[in-house]
Amino acid sequence: MRIGIVCYPTYGGSGVLATELGKALAGKGHHVHFITYQQPVRLNVFVPNIFYHEVQVPTYPLFDYPPYETALASTLVDVIKNNHLQLLHVHYAIPHASAAYMAKKILEQDGIDIPVITTLHGTDITLVGKDKTYAPVVAFSINQSDAITAVSKNLCDETFRTFNIKKPIEVIHNFVDVERFARKPIDAFKKVIAPNGERVLLHASNFRRIKRVQDVVLIFNEVRKKIPSKLLFVGDGPDRPVAEDLGRRLGICDDIRFVGKQEQMEDILAIADLFLLTSDYESFGLAALEAMAAGVPVVTTNAGGLPEVIEEGVTGYMANIGDVDTLAAKAISILTDDETLQQFKQGASAHARKFDIHNIVPLYEALYERFLEKAVV
Ligand code: GMT
User: Fold this and answer.
1) How far apart are CA 34 and CA 45, in angstroms?
2) Are residues 343 and 333 in the same domain?
3) Threshold 0.85, pTM exceeds
4) 151: Cβ below 6 Å to ligand 1?
């Protein structure tokens, strides 16, 4: 198949998922064309049947806001036509679903019918998408998609609750390449982070308000009172100063390390003992799944789709949003003795296999195949 993928190229989960999907499809022999404004961060390999088309957004003194959506739609028309793409898969509704709709309509004039699949990832529905400045366009363009998928049952339900969607939404859970994440720890790295064999707690995100990174610091503060431990923050974003300030105020910043945006998550996860995710909402929580695949138990809120990913008492524990005391107590119960920690580590990696790339990618392929006969070859 010749497939176009549109996504955000940044560190966010939707871009990661879209890129990993494209790489997996290419590995199965499909031709995959990424169309976005920057090389996706996880697209860091050369593969002959992966193509990258950069969307250029020319500026003009008149534009306070260069029209990315128009540039994307025009690039889509060009790429689809000249590479004879058979299907377009867009990740994150805003503005990808509406740009895809525009491209589809333009191509119709040339007798080209390109099926559009829109995958909803979370905040495109639950936060940004439902803002009334975007909502009518989001609802319309989702409804115009030939197929809609959501990364969790929770997100599917939220979408129906939020918008008047007139089509079925298929749930295809996010996936992880379990083999890739099952790494041995790099001893030298572990020694730098935890020189005296302390437990390593980890949080990775884009530090947006929704992640409640202050709760991560508060949980860590409780854990380190009982268990020698270090906290590693991966990623960056608006609330990083919030976490830093709180760490300073609590006098624990010597035990907290911010390592910024990192590509080699598997190496970082390999030295971790516990992953913390304290979000107000997660449609799925891909970061938690990647942690589990690396054999790292998770303590998370029970928000959104997280209960679809975490097996309570086996891969870790969940508690209510903001219930720092319970989350800390759960973390301590996992980390106190080696035997318990080992059990949770095994539970986490075993459960992650249910979401292995080899189980989920065929679901997307089967969905694509349903539209193949419609596509222009
Ligand atoms: O979590 C983020 O802030 C990034 C965001 C994105 O759109 O890139 O992630 C969303 O999509 C991921 C992949 O499907 C999900 O695993 C995340 O749970 C979801 N984030 C939210 O719902 C807040």
Assistant:
1) 13
2) yes
3) yes
4) yes
- In angstroms, the CA 219 to CA 103 distance is 48
Please tell me the distance from the alpha carbon of residue 272 to that of residue 185, in angstroms, as a whole number: 9
Range list of H helices, the chain: 13-27, 68-82, 93-108, 123-126, 135-144, 153-162, 178-181, 187-193, 213-226, 240-249, 265-269, 286-293, 306-309, 324-335, 338-352, 357-372
Residues 50 and 60 in one domain: yes
Same structural domain, 169 and 186: no
Please tell me whether residues 166 and 242 are part of one structural domain: no
What digits encode the pLDDT tens for the residues 117-167? 999 999 888 888 788 999 999 999 999 999 999 999 999 999 999 999 999
Q: What is the mean pLDDT of residues 238-259?
A: 97
CA distance 240 to 261: 12
Peptide bond into 67 cis (omega under 30): no
Query: What is the 173 CA–ligand 1 centroid distance (Å)?
Result: 12
Alpha-carbon distance of 216 to 208, in angstroms, equals: 13
Which stretch of DSSP H or E encloses residue 171? strand 169-171
> Which amino acid residue places its CA nearest to atom 4 of ligand 1?
12
- CATH code, domain with 115: 3.40.50.2000
Check residue 133 and give left, alpha or beta (phi > 0: left; psi -120 to 50: alpha).
alpha
- Minimum CA distance residue for ligand 1 atom 23: 282
Q: Is the CB of 40 under 6 A from ligand 1?
A: no
For residue 247, the enclosing domain spans: 178-355
Query: Considering the domain boundaries, does residue 377 fall inside one?
Result: no
Nearest CA to ligand 1 atom 2: 12
Domain count for the chain: 2
295 in the same domain as 258: yes
Rounded distance from Cα 13 to ligand 1 centre (Å): 5
Confidence of residue 376 (pLDDT cuts 50, 70, 90): very low
Closest atom, ligand 1, to C-alpha of 208: 3
- Mean pLDDT, the chain, integer: 95
Of the two residues 41 and 361, the one the predictor is more confident about is: 361
